[in-house]
């Protein structure tokens, strides 16, 4: 779950910064036309703001991952384990028809892994020290297959595009709410007052929560595809065995930070309402899906 949190955090931060800049430059005010809103101009502005955040996050994803997670990228293998890791990634990347990703290891007691990068031929696959210490080689191989499948499926780009679309509607609808509050409720007839800015910011934050639910739904959906891809690169037995190994350590901790969480192999958030914010389906459901497809 680590990668999605960083991705979403960066998106929200960029969204807020660009929104503030547009307001300071008076671009928001230019949308005011004869007391109404120029919907086309507003939608264009919303798209610029919305897609800026997701695309910036996408192109910076590898850099953020390396720094945020303290990933040690393997340039030259220094031991047998690193050599095996590099060879496994290289073999599966060739099977999946993608360029050789960078391979890294990050310190974490929890067994986890993630893949990130702006395209399928310029990716990073990283595994935790906990994964290497707690799981057998055949299980680690399946986890790597899962991550390679994320890359081959283009999940990073798809997630960025979906995030851009929902960001666009968050900005668009929040400005509509701000306009209604300012003009209809507060009866402001000249320019935009404080009510517009406060209402649009509050609406933006609330709508961002709903947008996150949509992004997390997609993240859960593509986990099943990545499991199937991992099974095709190794075997269903290995992939199911890797998921059961994760169960043995009681559903590992979420990766810290939005974008990473989405492309990790596991994730843990509570049930009920909070389940809507899970980046990964429960492990038992993923195992069941693998077994049913055999």
UniProtKB/TrEMBL annotation:
Any one biological process term the GO annotation gives: proteolysis
InterPro entries in the cross-refs: HtpX_protease (IPR050083), Pept_M48_protease_HtpX (IPR022919), Peptidase_M48 (IPR001915)
GO molecular function, one term: metalloendopeptidase activity
Chief site of localization: membrane
Localisation: Cell membrane
EC number: 3.4.24.-
Cellular component terms (Gene Ontology): plasma membrane
The organism's place on the tree of life at top rank: Bacteria
Record's bilayer topology term: Multi-pass membrane protein
Cofactor: Zn(2+)
Keywords: Cell membrane, Hydrolase, Membrane, Metal-binding, Metalloprotease, Protease, Stress response, Transmembrane, Transmembrane helix, Zinc
Transmembrane segments: 39-60, 156-176, 196-218
Pfam families: Peptidase_M48
Residue span, Peptidase M48 domain: 81-292
Bound cofactor: record note: Binds 1 zinc ion per subunit.
Enzyme class: hydrolase
Family: Belongs to the peptidase M48B family.
PANTHER family reported for this sequence: PROTEASE HTPX
Official protein name in the record: Protease HtpX
């Amino acid at each position: 779950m680590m990668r999605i949190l960083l991705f979403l955090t960066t998106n929200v931060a960029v969204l807020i910064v660009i929104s503030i800049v547009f307001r300071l430059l008076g671009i928001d005010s230019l949308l005011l036309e004869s007391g109404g809103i120029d919907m086309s101009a507003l939608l264009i502005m919303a798209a610029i703001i919305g897609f800026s955040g997701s695309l910036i996050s996408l192109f910076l994803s590898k850099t953020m991952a390396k720094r945020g997670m303290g990933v040690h990228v393997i340039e030259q293998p220094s031991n047998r384990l690193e050599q095996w890791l590099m060879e496994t990634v290289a073999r599966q990347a060739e099977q999946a028809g993608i360029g050789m990703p960078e391979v890294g290891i990050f310190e974490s007691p929890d067994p986890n892994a993630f893949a990130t990068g702006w395209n399928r031929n310029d990716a990073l696959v990283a595994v935790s020290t906990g994964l290497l210490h707690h799981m057998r080689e055949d299980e680690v191989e399946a986890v790597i297959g899962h991550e390679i499948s994320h890359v081959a499926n283009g999940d990073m780009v798809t997630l960025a595009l979906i995030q851009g679309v929902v960001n666009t509607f968050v900005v668009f609808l929040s400005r509509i709410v701000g306009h209604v509050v300012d003009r209809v409720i507060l009866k402001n007839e000249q320019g935009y007052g404080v009510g517009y800015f406060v209402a649009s910011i509050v609406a933006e934050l609330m709508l961002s929560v709903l947008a996150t639910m949509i992004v997390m739904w997609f993240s859960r959906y593509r986990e099943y595809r990545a499991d199937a891809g991992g099974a095709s690169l190794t075997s269903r037995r290995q992939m199911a065995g890797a998921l059961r190994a994760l169960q043995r350590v009681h559903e590992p901790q979420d990766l810290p930070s939005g974008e990473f969480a989405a492309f990790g192999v596991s994730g843990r958030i509570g049930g009920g309402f909070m389940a809507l914010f899970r980046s990964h389906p429960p492990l038992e459901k993923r195992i069941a899906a693998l077994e049913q497809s055999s």
